[in-house]
């Protein structure tokens, strides 16, 4: 049974994740809680109760009967539903907990209906529209994305994904002896290409204005335009990684299952959605955890002006930290 907070000599620090973020396992545990799709079914009253628990605790107030586990459960619910900067409740489809159920439906549709022109257009449009909702809901940080940037990145990603998917489908039709399984991998190529367009466009201000870099104690030392060159590729790799198992292994598994005696064509969409849901349940938190949220960079890799600024400090650090984003 979890200990009572009132009996602890040192209270938990909920300003940081519960698990060690310097270790992959700790980061994975953290994202398994924040991306838990069961949080979508938590009532508004429970969410408000969790919010009040977190706010009161930060002010040094808590129920004497509150346990450590109950505190961390409240914190995980708060993190899953409320914006970290404004504290406002986020639109339900834009929450991290909505990633698995929404993506399993969209990806399942893309993998099932991937041959006809209107199917390709519809599902890639839906996918990029969902991404736009997530980006808009979670827009935060020092340099917030304005509406124009969101619209441009949405249009560019949608156009890129459709161009990629339709071009590959056309080439495969021209290739007379092309293995049928290759056509099932086209949605993955299109989504990977769209992510490579969308994320850098969404965060373009970081390349011109920089992102804050901090010392190990969290003190901001300046803004770096070099750090985004490391941060953004990490985010792109994580996003592409999330879709790799269900969009690469999924079609292979589906192709195998279609040979079973019990399989009928009517089962195609439900089966693809179930496969995607199972794989996304693991790939989403695992790929979010690939790189530390607070990543590090050596000072000598920063731009010269910032290096000089940092080196003038008493006991200047050799390494600084930045928030890579998600």
TrEMBL record:
**PANTHER family with a match to the protein in the record:** SIDEROFLEXIN (PTHR11153), SIDOREFLEXIN (PTHR11153:SF35)
The record ties this protein, via Pfam families, to: SFXNs (PF03820)
Q: InterPro entries, per this entry? A: Mtc
Query: Lineage from the top down?
Result: Eukaryota, Metazoa, Ecdysozoa, Nematoda, Chromadorea
BP GO annotations: serine import into mitochondrion
Q: Name one GO cellular component term.
A: mitochondrial inner membrane
Protein name, UniProt field:
Sidoreflexin
Give the species this sequence originates from: Caenorhabditis angaria
What stretches pass through the bilayer?
151-172, 181-199, 271-291
Query: How does the record classify its membrane topology?
Result: Multi-pass membrane protein
Name the source's superkingdom: Eukaryota
Instruction: Give yes or no: UniProt keyword Transmembrane helix.
Output: yes
């Amino acid at each position: 049974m979890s200990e009572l907070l009132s009996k602890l000599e040192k209270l938990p620090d909920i300003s940081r994740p519960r698990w060690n973020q310097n270790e992959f396992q700790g980061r994975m545990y953290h994202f398994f809680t924040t991306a838990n799709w069961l949080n979508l079914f938590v009532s508004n009253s429970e969410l408000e109760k969790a919010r009040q628990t977190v706010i009161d605790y930060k002010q040094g107030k808590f129920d004497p009967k509150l346990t450590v586990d109950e505190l961390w459960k409240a914190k995980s619910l708060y993190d899953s539903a409320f914006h970290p900067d404004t504290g406002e409740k986020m639109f339900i489809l834009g929450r991290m907990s909505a990633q698995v159920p929404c993506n399993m439906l969209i990806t399942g549709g893309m993998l099932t209906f991937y041959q006809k022109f209107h199917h390709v257009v519809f599902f890639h449009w839906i996918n990029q529209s969902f991404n736009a909702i997530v980006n808009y809901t979670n827009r935060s940080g020092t340099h917030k994305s304005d509406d124009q940037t969101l619209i441009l990145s949405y249009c560019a990603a949608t156009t890129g994904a459709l161009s990629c998917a339709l071009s590959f489908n056309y080439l495969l039709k021209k290739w007379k002896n092309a293995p049928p399984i290759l056509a099932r991998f086209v949605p993955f190529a299109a989504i990977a290409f769209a992510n490579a367009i969308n994320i850098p466009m969404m965060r373009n201000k970081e390349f011109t204005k920089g992102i804050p870099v901090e010392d190990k104690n969290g003190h901001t030392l300046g803004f770096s335009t070099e750090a985004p060159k490391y941060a953004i590729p990490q985010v792109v790799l994580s996003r592409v990684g999330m879709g790799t198992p269900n969009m690469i292994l999924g079609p292979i598994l589906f192709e195998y299952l279609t040979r079973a005696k019990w399989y009928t064509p009517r089962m195609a969409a439900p089966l693809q959605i179930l496969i995607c849901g199972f794989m996304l349940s693991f790939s989403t938190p695992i790929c979010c955890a690939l790189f530390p949220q607070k990543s590090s960079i050596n000072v000598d890799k920063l731009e010269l002006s910032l290096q000089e600024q940092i080196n003038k400090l008493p006991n200047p650090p050799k390494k600084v930290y930045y928030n890579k984003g998600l």
